User: Fold this.
Amino acid sequence: MSEDIEKTINELHIYEKKLLKELEANPNATPEEISESSGMDIKSVMSAAGSLVSKDIIEVDKEVQETYSLTEDGLKYAEQGLPERKILDVLSQKHQIHMKDLASETGIDKKEANIALGWLRRKDWAQIDKGVVNVTDFGMEFADKLGADEKVLDYLKANADGVKLFTDDLRDGFLKLTGRKNILNIQKETSHSFKLLPKGEEILKHGFTIQKQATQLTHQQLKDGEWKSLQYRPYDINAEAPVVFAGKKHPLRVIIDEIREIFLNMGFSEDKGSYVESAFWNFDSLFQPQDHAAREMQDTFYLKNPLTCDLPDADLVKLTAETHENGGGTGSIGWQYDWSEDIARQSVLRTHTTGISTKHLYDFEPPIKMFSVGRVFRRETFDYKHLPEFHQVEGLVCDEGISFQNLLGTLKEFYKKLGFEVRFRPAYFPYTYLSTETEIYLEEKESWIELGGAGMFRPEVLKPLGIDKPALAFGLGIERLAMIRYDVSDIRMLYKSDIKWLRELNLDNGVKL
Assistant:
């Protein structure tokens, strides 16, 4: 035990030793008294005390003393009376006042009248019925005597320097006043006291000397040999060091960068597109009928500025219209309606990134391997699994001989690089056939979770674009992947900027540190 005490003493800072010596001389000394007698400033005294507390050498007690006085408004009410008192003075004579006459009858302004009416009801001094304020029997009892809060106002007025404590008979009135704004002025004074713990008493019993200790050496001390006679303060190499939170990427950015790297390593090029798009590229180019439910205002953000977008090449527009109306020579009968250029010109915030794929197919000739990662927008209600804006990933491959089997193989390779085992089940999408949904297996939950959709673009999509080769496309939502990766049950967590969660999250595996 003696060795432990000596080790502790050797590791004490000179300020900690000074504080202990002061407590040995005067166990009841305040921080201010210790500061004056030791020559340390108050900040050094409290810093040393905090360090001694962490070593279980002393205990620090904190006491907060509140002093109450009247504000400017409080003093006015003490001298002139509370607003509800002014109304009660009139009611005790007339028994009732119409609310429209309240200001003229009582001399209080409209703002104070609203406050006063609330307190009149709360104190049961008056009731309001059909716009008329009527005094109550209880209110009449207080016509000639002060309420509890009014007694406190008088008491504080008489003690202008402030009151620290209230007697029991004034406590109810004091509580009433604390529920009102700008009446009480509260000043807080914090005082500290120190108490030696058994370990501290043992250190003082063992004894120590206060000597200046070197914590760093100068060039001159090394040169002239002074370093040999200096006393050095030892350090505890096992002491806990502060946690340093280095800057790092946001969890969503980590996944986006990971996905981009996977696509680039698989030989894909990137296309970004734009947030604002025409309904033509967002819907029509994907053979989505103009009366489709997804186009409704409750699902899509339509813009006022710009209200419309330019349509692409006239031939493309003509072919797209024919495809919608009668199939346009694709072997389909189309949707059998009159296609409208005005609807196609509408400006929207893109609802998916698939429109980037059709635009890319029109702008470039096969062979094509393209991906896009971008933010999309839908009129969703905020809840634990829906947001009105989120990120979507899109992949596109177009070339001679591309088949559904290539699609499944590409998906397997992509998800394998993300670390998932996958399986497929049939699905339906308006612009692909065959279509599939991808499910990944979560070992910790022993279940399969749907993560994305995919399929072969229909001839009704490809033919108007001038593409005569098959094309596969697939996509997934990044937020959903992030929720799985980081074990988040509420999608809103990804955007809350919860600094504690962001600091503790291990981005390599999604486990909290």
Q: What stands out?
A: The chain has three domains: 1-64+184-242, 72-182, 252-504. The chain is about 40% helix and 20% strand. The chain has a mean pLDDT of 88. The longest strand covers residues 58-70.
